[in-house]
Amino acid sequence: MSRALAPFERRLGEVVAVDAVGAYRRLRCTDPGGPVPRPGQFYMLATAAGWGGGEDERPYLPRAFSYLRHAAGELEFLLEDVGPGTHRLTDARPGEGIWLLGPLGAGFAPPRDGREPLLVGGGIGIVPLAPLQHAISDPTDPLGTGQGRVLLGFRDEAHAAAAGLMRDATVCTDDGSTGHHGLVTEVLDERLGEHVEVYACGPPAMLEAVRLMTGERAVPAQLALESGMACGFGACFGCVVPTHDGYVRVCVDGPVLEAGDLEAVPAP
Questions:
Q1: What is the model's pTM?
Q2: How far is CA 125 from the centre of its chain?
Q3: CA distances from 164 to 40, 41, 57, 114 (A)
Q4: Would you kindly state where each structural domain of the chain is located, as residue ranges?
Q5: Domain range 11-104, CATH architecture
Q6: Architecture in CATH for domain 116-261
Q7: Of 7, 104, 132, 227, which cross-links 39 as Cys (Cβ 3.0–4.6 Å)?
């Protein structure tokens, strides 16, 4: 798996903007001196101020996020306000300092044997697929193939607004408020041909379904796993997942792992 190596220390960026994308929030920040990340890599984020429960309380751990875009010394992330850490990040204001550690982990590898990339995302898991789609369309990029299809699944229309961050996506919603009424894996089942390679990220149940589906049909698949991380560089062993050869750490051996190597995609 390809990766860009991060500097050994975290660096201080500045929040440029935080805006709404349907039910999500897009955070844009500067990244002074940071290397160019590869699709599938992630960052550990923390605000420079107010990152904790309050006076005499322990600060929050940094939060791991795949990057959405990188350009001109800036990074973009897509967040969902689901807890104290993500709430603080989505509440950040332009000019605030933000600590960045990354890019970390192993990203996506090029498709094998001339296969067509088939990108499958669920909810906030669409994030690492956005830079992957950009790389696929770039003939100078190692991932560039000039083609690729995109299938995205969301809870409802408000969350599906994030599909606009990618091009030519087939959209599914659980409640049928927009696009196909049903799971994205239902559409994948119809379109899973023998000459594709699947690239997927989403909730564990979706990824486990993709793992089983592609395994039954001998279709190669690369899965970007989501896992709670305390450090981001393999020291705490808090993000291990089972493979046929033992446990691996998502933060350094992944987050992109071969579906065929996994015993299962563990539930949180």
A1: 0.94
A2: 5
A3: 19, 21, 40, 28
A4: 11-104, 116-261
A5: Beta Barrel (2.40)
A6: 3-Layer(aba) Sandwich (3.40)
A7: 132
The beta strands (E) that lie in 86-178 are given as 97-104, 116-122, 149-154, 169-173
CB 121 within 8 Å of CB 95: no
Q: Read off the amino acid at residue 72.
A: A
pLDDT tens, residue by residue, 102-125: 999 999 999 998 899 999 999 999
In this predicted model, what pLDDT tens digit does every residue of 140-159 receive, in sequence order?
888 888 888 999 999 999 99
Alpha helices in the chain (DSSP H): 84-90, 129-136, 157-160, 184-191, 204-216, 250-253
- Residue 209 binned pLDDT confidence (cut-offs 50, 70, 90): very high
Angle at 239 between CA 224 and CA 15, to 5 degrees: 70
- First-last CA distance in the chain: 24
pLDDT exceeds 80 at position 57: no
Long-range contacts of the stretch 141-149 (C-beta < 8 A, 24+): 142/2, 142/110, 143/2, 143/39, 143/108, 143/109, 143/110, 145/110, 145/111, 145/116, 145/117, 147/116, 147/117, 148/116, 148/117, 148/118, 148/119, 149/116, 149/117, 149/118, 149/119, 149/191, 149/196
- Contact, 120 vs 170, CB < 8 A? no
Q: Read off the tokens for 78.
A: 């897509």
